[in-house]
Amino acid sequence: MERISIHLENPHVRTIQAAVAALEKGELVVYPTDTLYGIGCSIYQKKAIEQLYRLKGKSKFEPMSLICGSIRQAAEYTYISNFAFRVLKRCFPGPFTVVLQARKEIARLMLSRRMEIGVRIPEALVCRQLVEQLGHPILNSSVVMEEQMGMYGEMSLDPDIEEAAALLLDAGPLPEFRESTVVRILDNEIEVIREGRGPLDVLRQ
Questions:
Q1: What's domain 2-204's superfamily in CATH?
Q2: I need a surface site. Which of 21, 33, 58, 113 has the fewest CB within 10 A?
Q3: Are 172 and 156 in contact (CB under 8 A)?
Q4: Where are the domains of the chain?
Q5: Closest Cα partner for 98 from 82, 114, 123, 116?
Q6: How far apart are CA 196 and CA 96, in angstroms?
Q7: Global pTM value
Q8: pLDDT in tens, 112-152
Q9: Measured between alpha carbons, how far is 20 from 195 in angstroms, rounded to an integer?
């Protein structure tokens, strides 16, 4: 796996381009988000999707999430009601994962039994630039927190992840290692699935 240093607030264009090239070739990339580091692939690379599920030990009925660049892009792949749109406007960009009903543009391989998928629009500029340059969302899963930090701030990844991923965009220690808050929106109701970094009071404004 190749490691490239990247600045969280001012990522170098060539570094983003290198990561996008890897995603377009069907490779896995590790990158910083506004919560934990993530590992992901293009949603249009079936072999990479299958590899990511195997790597994370998930079944196809345990959904991951899409990193999108905007709510408008998320609406191309999920159904967003007026109620959901108002909630998303308060949550994004930010440390939330919002589970929504998926459109047919999402391959069944990536969906839960309920035909749902999570959506993320992180604050992290690295993520948004990756998606912008790629032109479509990234299928994303978190890298386990305990395996993210080595001594002296050097990134330390699970050996299986290090072997599987083609590239690590290494921003060093992230400001706050904490998972995203996960909520489901269904029939204009909000269900909190996991409380994480995203504050719950944002959902109720």
A1: DHBP synthase (3.90.870.10)
A2: 113
A3: no
A4: 2-204
A5: 116
A6: 8
A7: 0.90
A8: 667 889 999 999 999 999 999 999 999 999 986 444 444 44
A9: 31
